[in-house]
Amino acid sequence: MRLLEYQAKEIFSKYDIQTPKGFVSNNVEEGLAHAMKLKFPVIIKSQVPVGGRGKAGAIQKCNNVDEFMLKYNQVLNMKIKDEKPRAILTEKLTSYEKELYLSIFLNRNKRCYNIIASLQGGIEIESFKNQIIHEADLNSFNEELASQIANEINLDEKSKYNFVQILQKLFKLVVNMEAELAEINPLVMLKDGKLLAIDGKIITDDNANFRQQTLQNFKQKTVIEEIAEKNGFSLVELDGNIAVIGNGAGLVMSTLDVLTDNGGKAACFLDVGGSATINSVYEALKIINKIKNVKGILINLYGGIVKTTTVAYALIKAYEDKLINVPISARLKGTEFQKSKELLETKNISMFDSVESAIIFIIKEVEKC
Predict the structure, then answer these.
(1) Any idea what the Cα angle at residue 202 is, between residues 1 and 99, rounded to 5°?
(2) Cα–Cα distance for residue pair 44/256, rounded to 1 Å
(3) Are 326 and 294 in contact (CB under 8 A)?
(4) 93, 196 in Cβ contact below 8 A?
(5) Measured between alpha carbons, how far apart are the two ends of the chain, in Å?
(6) Are 81 and 74 in contact (CB under 8 A)?
(7) Following CA atoms 211, 217, 218, 223 in sequence, which dihedral angle do they give, to the nearest 10 degrees?
(8) pTM of the entire structure?
(9) pLDDT tens for residues 132-171?
């Protein structure tokens, strides 16, 4: 489940991760009362469970009452990827020196967590090359590793202590909440060296949510994510144009990283899970077909419990039903992968032995579109 920003910040506050003061509303009168309490200038943010708010104009600065009245109603009625705002978050405008990036995600494939940090943050984080990535588990993560990461991204001394504290709190949050991802972007540096989480994202494990009492009031999904859940797989929409399919959150997330490093941008994160069937994968492809900005599909699959032929037969059926009309590149390994390669080559799906080769190919194909 992907939490809305204000929900993620509620979780942050429980772990003493500082965020700007703000209030959630659903109408302009209530929102204006909040803005007056905070005092102008303020920021209003659409609360939708998809990315791309900034580029769509759904995050707006308001300097006075007139601007607020006009922009609030615009943002409230603005759809992003067919999603209406669930609420509007009004926050006090924060002045800061620098934007950083910090995230932790569960790497199921390696049974550990990946920590990503950068001295650059913001809406173009995917294009930044100077990210620091570390693997850690419950035994290896400690204050010393957090301090090492702070040094590697070249934080100055006045911010280093605060960064180390926040990283330790975020790691504790991910473990305790059984989260697949916790991201702060941007994590901003104030003049006094303190750090503030201006925006936040948390994605939780649907299979573990029943154990998390805090999440019971947060169950809101996109239309597409609801369809995905009913069919037994996990899908999160992103802002790019290449759909990424894999099995296991760790494998999919690492594929996203390699795709980004090569200049590509993912349109969605689709984990077919460990109980995938031909029918469920076919349903997943139907959902991908509904995502308007998908120009290509990248498949990185390691057959274990789920045979690679399960995905192969679903792809063939999708082609026969004319469900797929975009280029596909695939890297398949594991159970019955040789048979899958033979099946898919007859459908003009480009097969590769390495994910890097598959990614380079699909990026070039998408650029032709």
Answers:
(1) 150
(2) 30
(3) yes
(4) no
(5) 32
(6) no
(7) 110
(8) 0.65
(9) 999 999 999 999 999 999 999 999 888 999 999 999 999 9
